Structures are given as C-alpha cells and as structure tokens.
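User: two proteins, same treatment. go.

Assistant:
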Amino acid sequence: MSVPTPVTAVDALPPPPPPPAPVASSSSSSSWPFGSLYNRFAAWRKSLDLPNPGTVENLSKEAKQTSLNNYAFDGARADLSKSLSMNPMFQVTHSFHLGSQTSPPTYHFGAMFANDRLFMHGNVDNDGNMSARFNQGWSANSVSKVQAQLSTTPGQSFVQLEHDYQGSDYSLNAKAVNPSPADLSGIYMGSYLQSLTKNLALGVETIYQQQAPGLSDVGAAYLAKYTSTDRNWIATAQVQGPGILQASYWQKLSEKVDVAAELQVMAAPGRRDALATLAARYELRMASFRAQLDSTGKVSAYLEQRFAPTFAFLVSGEIDHFKNAAKVGVGVMIESSSLTPEEMGMVPPPGVPAVPMPQP
C-alpha cells in the first residue's frame, strides 16, 4: 500500500504572474517639446480636407490651353508620327515647317518613350540643335526632371534641373538653370503653393541669379489662385517685381465651350505697357476651334479638323489690324502605327503622362 506524497507549502502556491509587457516608448513625442502641438496641428489640417492646388508652373494652365499662343502658326506644316509600342509608349515623329514669314524652313525629328515612372523625349532639327527632356517619378508625389538644349546659336544652350513634390494640400518645386558647382553661378528658383481653403490657394516664388562671383540678383513673386466649388471657373494672379502683374480668368461654359481672359501689366519706372487677351475654345466630336482677340489689334483663329483618328487637317490665321498684316497657315497631322488594332486600343497604364505631339 503506497503512502501519498505530502504536499509542501511551496507546491501549494499558485504560479507567479507573467512579467508585464513592455510599454511602447513615447520618446518621439516627449523628446520634442512641441511634438503634441504638431500632432494636433497635423490632425486639424487633415480634418480640413484641403485639395492639392497644383504646381506654380501650371498656375494658369486652363487659360493657356484655351488661348492660341501654343497653337498658332503660319506657312505650311506637316507632322508625321509612328507608334512603335503602346506599353511602354514609344513613338517617333517627323515635323516639317516651311513658308513662314518669321522663321526659315525647318525639319525636326523626335522620339518619345514613357511608362508609369519614366518619360524621355528627344528632338533634333536640320541645323543640329538638340533638346531633351527626362522625367523620373520616384512616387506618385515626387518627380525629378532634367531638361537640356544644345544649340548652334551662342548663348542658347542650357541645362535645367528640377524637382516637384506634391503634398496633400501644397506643392513644392526647386529648379536650377545652368548651375555651376565651381562658383555657384546660375539661376535658382524655389516655389511653394498652399491651399488655405477648398477654393483659395496662395504661394510665393523666389529667384536667385548669379551671373558671376559678386554679381547676383534676388527677386520674388507672389501668387494667388481661386477655384470655384464646382471647378467651372478659375482666377489666378501673379505679382512680381516693381509693377509687374499677370492675371488670368478661365470659365467652362458647357461641356464643349470654354473661354479665357489674360492680362499682363508692366508699370516699371521708365516703361508702361499692358496686354489684354480674350480667347474661346469650342470642342466638337471630330474638331476643335479656337479664336482669340488681343488689345494690340490681332485677331486669330485655329481649326483642327480630324477626318479620321489618324489624320487631321489644320488651319491657322491671324490678322493684325494696326499693322495691316495677315498670316495664314495650313498643315496636316498623320499618325501611323505598326501595332495591331487590339494593341492600338490598349489604354495606357495609370501614371503615363498624356504627351502631345511635339511642335516645331
């Protein structure tokens, strides 16, 4: 007969509780005296749900797209492009321009490559002038850009380095033109645009220029942009230097019609000048018509008529009533492709920039 083992006092005690879990350190907020204040400010700023105001470079983008300044031409022009790939996008372009009253006959050859993070474009003309653009997207909000030009004309060659950052309710841009690490000569620009409300954005742009050691100049420009709640009209203003003002107004009247007005005023000592421009754009299913009138007496019109998705006919005209002069231009745009119809119908992936055909 077995004798039961006696239970000691130690065996009767319950097991010790597990050690407490380590508490996360709050050194990030306690080590900085203003940490909690910053967190409250960031939370309040996020609760406002302010939109991104866009970049300073595209401050008056809608008004510029309506006007004829980037479309008007004279003489005869032909743009022939061929798409070799859709994803990634790869396209080559041949551009001819002759018979102009203001420029000699020219020929341009261009090549374009783009995917969701990278964009490259190169161009060379019959005189040997070359230009190139390179954009690298590091994220959806951060893009680095390089632009360069080699010209046979003295003083026309340049290189430009740029970086864009888009925040939730602000945009930052830094730019350097012909920077020299040796003596820090060049042109340096920085801009900041901040949304204060869902409609109003204010910003500033600074320019530092150093042509030679000891010879420098500093300037600043102040920006304002107001967008309606339904985004049917946008007003912008830019004040720079002593007495220089640029203002624009754009309004969308319907799905097919929009109008724009631009004003440039210079009231610097010894020079007073002003230019006002009114423009309208009418978009049809297979055509686009633009008309423009400015305070110098110029009346301009531009028509792009597409007879097929790969063929367009262009007509541009301008009458200068004060100088009693006129300009007329005609052109064609022809697009060909070695892709199959299924490949041509592919939609570019998100993030691929919608790049227009290079203009001569």
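Protein 2:
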Amino acid sequence: MARNSNTAVFEALVAALVISTASAVTHQVGDGIGWNVPPGGAVAYSTWSSNNTFKAGDTLVFTFASGSHDVAEVTKEAFDACNATNPISLTTNSPATLTLTSGEHYYICTFDSHCGSGQKLAVNVTGTTSSPSPAPTVSPPTSSPAPVLAPEPSSSASPPAPSAPAPSPSTGPTTYTVGDTAGWNVLGNGTYTVWASNKSFFVGDVLVFNFLNQSHDVAEVTKTNYESCNTSNTLSLYSNPPVRITLNTTGEIFFICTFAGHCNQGQKLAINVSSSTATPTPTSAPAPSPTSGSAPTPSTSTATPPITGTTTPTTPVPASDVTPPPSPSTATSLGVAGLSATFLSIAVALFMF
C-alpha cells in the first residue's frame, strides 16, 4: 500500500511540472488602441513593449480592421527602414495570432506610410520554446520504512507575553505613467478622464508623460484654459520626453498638449491632489493584569474623629448575646397566634364542663 501511495505522489509531481512548463501568456498588442497607426508615433508601441515581458510560447494578438491594416514580420533592417518588400511572414486577417519563439522579432504594417507613422513593434523574447519536452522516464522511488520520530518534549514554560503590534509603515510616493502603455497621445475625448478616475493622487506623487519628441508636449494650465483648450497662456511647458512632474500642491491641476487640435481631440488631463496621509500612531501594548499575589488596594475611607467632651463609658455588649427585635410583621403574627390559642383553650374548657 505504501509503495502504491508513493508512486501516485511521484506521478502527480511530474504532471504538475509538465503543466507549469506548458503555460503561456497571451498579449493583446497595444491593449486599448489595438494595431493601428498611433497618433503619437512609434513611442506608443515601444512603450507598450517595454512594459511587458515576452517568453517563448507566448502569443501576440493583433486586432485591426481587415483591409485597412496587416501584420508583417520582417528583419531588423527592414524594420528600421520600414521596408515591406520581403516580409518573413504576412497576415492580413484580423485578429492575427502569432506564437513567439526566443529572440528578437519585428513587426510592421505594410500599408502605405503606416510603418513610417509609427505602426511598428519590436519585441525581445526570452527562454526556450514552450512546447513541453517529453517527461523524463524516472523510476519511482522505492518505499522505505518511515522513520520513527521521537516525541517532542513537553514544555512547562508559560507562553511569552504578547508583544506590542508593530506600527503600520507609511505609504511612500507613487509614480504614475500617464495613460499607462498608451502614453501621452491623442486617444480620443474622455480617455484620460477615465484613466484618472480610479486613482488617488497625493502630494509627493509623480506623473510621467511618455510621448514622441516634437510631436507632443505637456503644458500645465488654468481650469478655464483647460476647458477651452486655450494654449496661449500656460503656467508651465515641457517639451522633452519623458516628462516627470512631482505633485507639490493640493487641489486641482490641469494639463494639455499645445499642438494644434490635440487638446480638442482629448489630449488633456485633470487630477485632484490631496495632502499626504499621516503615518498611523502605533498601538501601545496592553498593561499586564495583576497577579494573584498582588497587594490588596488600601481602603480610601477615613476614620470618624472622636467626639470632644466628657462621656460616660459604657460596657459593650457582645454581638452574639444580643437578640435582634422581631420585625413588625413577625410580632403581629405572634400576637395573632397567641390570641387564637387563648380562645381555643377557653372553648375546650367549656366543652369539658
């Protein structure tokens, strides 16, 4: 029975190893923007690629409008030059699902000027191919008698007193990449409002704007200029990516891109900054309860001072020799009982005579 049990455990471990080796990840290229000509240029897909890890056996899914785009795998030279004349492979139907092997891979769209406008992707794949190799034939271990464990000595020592809980660590500043993998681009109205809606910004946090140089910029403006996309009077202007802005004040802060038409097409961000949260005060340890041998608490009552003047001393009567007087209800009961006995005695005497 023990041998069969050991064999079953060994086979389960081998099966788990094979399953874990065969696991793979599916990557949606571009996430929300799909496979299109990115408004901000090639930085959109280079940013997306840098935020992902690719391993052999993973798959890339390119989603696009068939007839308007395609996916061509090319050499590095063709990728750099946007040369689509001799692709390694070409897929024209969406969605295009490609399985990755180890090494560098380069993809472009072959439609006119799409690659030159930034519709190109380079990924670096690590590891070997994820196709699981046959499990090695290993003889199951022979069963051996289980060692007899010595009984643990009983401990007579009392458990240690609970220690004071450690104070919770304070939360440090958070760095946010604006737009996440899509970066700072023209992505349509409301895109950055949605991005900021599920985040909390505090003083000390950092905003990072990633964009293609000379294609976008970052301008801090007033609320009025934000709403009207007025780029003439900016509070501050940043043009060299990546732009890192530390949030130093509380309240509403507004950012736009000053390039023509970009703000009106949704390249604008409004956030509300709160003061940093204070570090919580650690909870003090509870005071230990007194042991049974502690001294009793002294009485706080004070003695009654003696009455001044001459008094006649009286002999105290021991408490055990004094019979307390009956209560009124008890005296009444005894009187009724005595009266009843008297009438009964008279009645018996008359009857006898």
